[in-house]
Amino acid sequence: MDAVSFFQVAEKGIFVKFLKNKFLIDDILNTEHPSDFDYTKDYSLLILRLPFIKEDEVKIFSYVFLIKENEVFIFDRKIKDFEKLGDFEKLYEYLDIRVDKILVKLNSFHLEIAKIEDNMYDDVFESDFSKKWLKLKKELTLIERHLSHAMIAYERFLKYFKLNDDFAFKDLEEHLQRAFSFSKAAIEKLDYLYEFFKAKQDEKMNKIMFVLTIISGIFLPLTLITGFFGMNTGGLPFTNDSFGTIKATVIGIILEIPFVWMLWYYMKKK
């Protein structure tokens, strides 16, 4: 691709006004500038901040396209310069490859979520569920947020150049919309799975509390008896009886029987 620097462009007298627009240059150099489309009588500028899949991780990259007389230039951030990309067909091919990678990544997200869902239905919960859920939620939210802004800028671009009826660019728009829908559906599924996970965790905690309550209830009468006979006062029954301990134990067991029976009946009924 042919490099076209700011100074070369100025020498040709094509983008003199462009070079004088400091705010526009700042937008081009800004790696975190949101997706946008702007135009003048001399040129138009399309900025698409899209998810970029690198080594199976989701990154965000800002693509800047300068369009003059149906020729497209792309900004190379390494050399801080524009390079000639070609015509609109080259622009479509360049974006189509990157949007397809986003769709492939989203499909892998859906498969991973489906696997987690199947395991949960089988009552199998992975120990690192929260960590996996948070990672998926973060990456999917990132994709959805930037795609929503990119779609608006891309629609303005299509409308300005009257490309709404062009099959290639219409197909690319449909791919962007599909990627956005996929990411939104995956986020909704994740939220549902988290609610399901929380419900299961609450159910598990309720069972633990129920068991602890039963254990506490069983030992409550024995604790009362122990506390009663442990008082350091006179006149307590069985204090001078050689079989006092045995009698106190029998009384405790007799008092426990109705309570244990009620618990057994309740658990059997449940």
Summarize the structure.
The protein has 270 residues and is of the alpha+beta class. The protein has helices spanning 6-12, 16-20, 22-29, 88-121, 129-160, 167-229, 244-269; strands at 3-4, 36-39, 44-54, 57-68, 71-76, 81-86.
Question: Mind explaining what this structure looks like?
Answer:
This protein is α+β, with helices and mostly antiparallel strands and 270 residues long. The chain has a single domain (3-204), classed as Magnesium transport protein CorA, transmembrane region (Methane Monooxygenase Hydroxylase, Chain G, domain 1). The protein has seven helices and six strands; from the N terminus they run βαααβββββαααα. Strands 1-6-5-4-3-2 form a six-stranded antiparallel beta sheet. A hairpin with a 2-residue loop joins β4 and β5 (71-76). α5 packs antiparallel against α6 (167-229). It is rod-shaped and about 110 Å long. The termini are far apart. The relative contact order is 0.08. The model is unreliable at 9-17 (pLDDT under 50).
